[in-house]
Amino acid sequence: MVELDGEDHFWEPGIEKDLIKENYLKSLGIKVIRFENKWVFEDIEWVLGQIKAAFNHP
Predict the structure, then answer these.
(1) 3-state DSSP call for residue 5?
(2) Which of 16, 19, 20, 50 is the most buried (most CB within 10 A)?
(3) How does pLDDT run along the chain (58 residues), one tens digit per residue?
(4) Which domain holds residue 22?
(5) Strand, coil or helix: what is 4?
(6) Is the distance from CB of 40 to CB of 8 less than 8 angstroms?
(7) 25 membership: H or E segment, kind and range
């Protein structure tokens, strides 16, 4: 699962919520990778490369 994090994810309530959600998904065997929203707009090729690498896609 790919998660994009906006400003709300960098404050304590958002951080805690993300941690709970990520731990739950991991317990189901779902891999989670996260990116700041800005990277999608500033360097989409890097983001896509990271996604491919994380999921062992050639």
Answers:
(1) strand
(2) 50
(3) 888 877 676 667 778 888 899 999 999 999 899 999 899 999 999 999 999 998 886 5
(4) 2-54
(5) strand
(6) no
(7) helix 12-27
| Helix H or strand E encompassing 48 | helix 44-54
At 22, list the tokens. Answer: 């990520």
Q: How far apart are CA 51 and CA 35, in angstroms?
A: 10
Coil vs helix vs strand at 18: helix
Kind and range of the H or E element at 37?
helix 37-42
Residue 43: both structure tokens together: 């360097």
In whole angstroms, what is the distance from residue 44 CA to residue 50 CA?
10
The structure tokens 């731990």 sit at 23
Structure token digits, residue 38: 């800005």
What is the count of structural domains for the chain? 1
